[in-house]
Amino acid sequence: MTKHLPIVIAWSILLLVFLPVQTGNAQVVDSTEIAIDSLRVDSTMIVPNPDTSDVAAAAQPGLLRQSRRSGGQDPDITIYPPVSNALEMVEQISRIPGSFSYDLSTPGWPSFWTIRGRNPAAIGVSWDGFNFDELYTGRPAFELLPRGLLDTLQLDVGTASSPTIRTVTRRSTSGAPLTELAYRTSNKGMQYVYASHSQQRNRTILGRPGRIGIRAGYEGQKADGEYPGSKLERARGVFTSLDLQSGRLGFELSNLASRRRVGAHGGVIAPVPGDPNSIYQRFGALVFDQNAERRIIRNDVTATTVFDANEEVSISLSTRWTKQFFRYRNSSDTLQVRSRRSLVRLDTWYKKRALLVGGHVSASNEWIADHSFLTGSLQDLSRYSAWLSFARAGTFSVSLKGGANSFDGNESHSIALRAGVITDFVGLEIAGSRSVPDPAHLDTFGFGRFATVAARTPGYVTDSRVRLEIELRPFSLSITPFILLEENPRDWMNTAVADSIVYRASGRDRTTSGISAKAGFRLQASRGFYASFDATSLSRVFVGSDPVSNPLASWESVGPDRYATAIAGLKYVLFEGDLDGNFYLRSRMWPDFTGYALHRQTGLAVLPTVGSTEIVSKSATLDVIVEAGVRGATIFLSYENVLSGTNLVIGNQLVAGYPLAQRRLRFGVFWPILN
């Protein structure tokens, strides 16, 4: 931390010097004091997404009751990414109740995330209404999202083919130019910078009064990593957008150019044979394939046209073109693939009071432009989907969505239903869905000798759950029992051949059942003590499985069967309107379990080799976080995994061979300026 101390001090001095402090009774407008709500999405430029709109959100009891007391913000789910102290996106969404992250704890690495026992590879992520996955492998590309530009995150379970984290680009609703700055550093050699500027101007467009908006943003990051071969050499992202609006017609054109180059070692080698805890010794540590690296260069170009026929009807036509270069290289192999995807979608919405009715049609095509590991030519992959949705909010709320999908000539249908009833103190929700997960290019064609496909089309997945919320201030309680039925599920699995995986079907149905619960004390208080405890317990069973003939059945209990997160904190106000503070402790706990392995060539979470004895030991992490709001700016200081490397906790890991960061100290600041 010593080498970064001058940077921390310099930033602190800059904040003290340039953030004006109101004195006396002066009535001077402070352009740096920005309510975070002023950074909300301007829905006049983007058609409301059916899964994140006010009406759809109101169909969830917890969110509706949240909206009555805190502007619709659930602090577990909808915190703004640039304001959050989370190191990576996966760390932030791991705070969603019932979820669990297989954290690699290294910037730029593809950590895994799951909720209520789902396969991490089946999780989706959506940005501005389009899937944002790694183009060839289909892995959710959380680490490539432009974190500084994003609005709040929303969890959508049941209205997509898999649980999906949805977000959109954040836009200012203020007419004044807005500049945003962020900086983060750590005692582990991490540096992160973010800067963006946006402004709007009233101009005549096609002879009619209109508005032009522009925005440009940049993100950059590097990190040394605690072990050889884990260094984040480069992470860059440049975002530009142009908005035009005249009357009821709007148009937006944006581009995100990103690149990432990161180490891809094959796991830490225990220096003391027979002592698995010796991998936690950082000094002189050795890893498999220290010189291996993954590299991604990607462009996402999006164009959206919106037409508001009247106050109730809206139509949009959107298209996104994605170009990606992926390369994995080690001392003996180089694998690379250039992928393309084009997608067009048409959405229409009718919204009146508490009613929202929508329709959607989309078509996409994916193809391989170049590769270094396959023989012959690859077929293009085409996807088509169409659906209708209905949602009604109120004391009794209901939402229904149904549609049809086609992938590579295989047709499927999906349906999702959610109904809820709420009072001031109690909320009850019943929800269920049935759909088929979308396969990726990798699931269809493999990855040379490193990934072989033994089964293609996946079966249906039926997800059902009941959610009960009770709030008797200052106490709150949420209980969610759930059942997940997967018909003949497919999974990627390690083989006896080094670095190779196979995509195979289980041949049996798998049932995952369990319960998630969250208890809270004074969670909505603006000052004083507060606490929460979130726990999940689940079990997986293959129906009629035979482990001898069905290798996947050996891993029906993969992942922890119970886990929990506890938070205790204190909110305080030192100077009204000038300095708000939040000090809290956060702890994660898990038992012994056999978990997913990292396939470093693709970044996927895969099942371990049959007969694997690599067990993730039970452990816990403890983080100490201090957050402060200073006249519009947000500052945080976090000390993470403080017990690791002590007599209490020698070390810990969530993916075998990849220890969590040890006693990491991080500092960060986010500063929006109206200028």
Task: Please characterize this protein's 3D structure.
With 675 residues, the chain is mostly beta strands. The protein has a single domain (2-20, 28-674), classed as Maltoporin, Chain A. The strands form seven sheets. It has a 22-stranded antiparallel β-barrel.
N→C terminal distance = 34 Å
CATH-scheme architecture: Beta Barrel
How many separate domains? 1
The radius of gyration over CA amounts to: 25 Å
The general outline is: globular
How would you name the CATH homologous superfamily? TonB-dependent receptor, beta-barrel domain
Kindly estimate the percentage of residues that lie in beta strands according to DSSP: over 45%
Largest sheet properties: 22 strands, antiparallel, barrel
Mean pLDDT: 82
Query: Spans with pLDDT under 50 lasting ≥5 residues?
Result: 1-76
Q: What is the number of E strands?
A: 37
The secondary structure category is mainly beta
Q: What level of helicity do the residues show?
A: under 10%
Helix count? 5
Properties at a glance:
675 residues, mainly beta, Maltoporin, Chain A, 22-stranded antiparallel beta barrel, four-stranded mixed β-sheet, disordered N terminus
Secondary structure topology:
Elements (H helix, E strand, L loop, with lengths): L4 H14 L35 H5 L2 H10 L18 H5 L5 E4 L9 E4 L8 E4 L2 E2 L22 E3 L7 E4 L10 E9 L4 E15 L2 E16 L8 E15 L2 E15 L4 E2 L16 E2 L5 E16 L4 E17 L4 E19 L2 E17 L9 E12 L3 E12 L2 E13 L3 E10 L5 H5 L5 E3 L7 E12 L2 E12 L3 E5 L6 E5 L4 E12 L6 E15 L19 E14 L3 E12 L6 E3 L4 E3 L12 E12 L2 E8 L12 E3 L2 E2 L4 E11 L1
Parallel strand pairs: 3-6, 22-26
Antiparallel strand pairs: 1-2, 3-4, 5-6, 7-8, 7-37, 8-9, 9-10, 10-11, 11-14, 12-13, 14-15, 15-16, 16-17, 17-18, 18-19, 19-20, 20-21, 21-23, 23-24, 24-27, 25-26, 27-28, 28-29, 29-30, 30-33, 31-32, 33-34, 34-37, 35-36
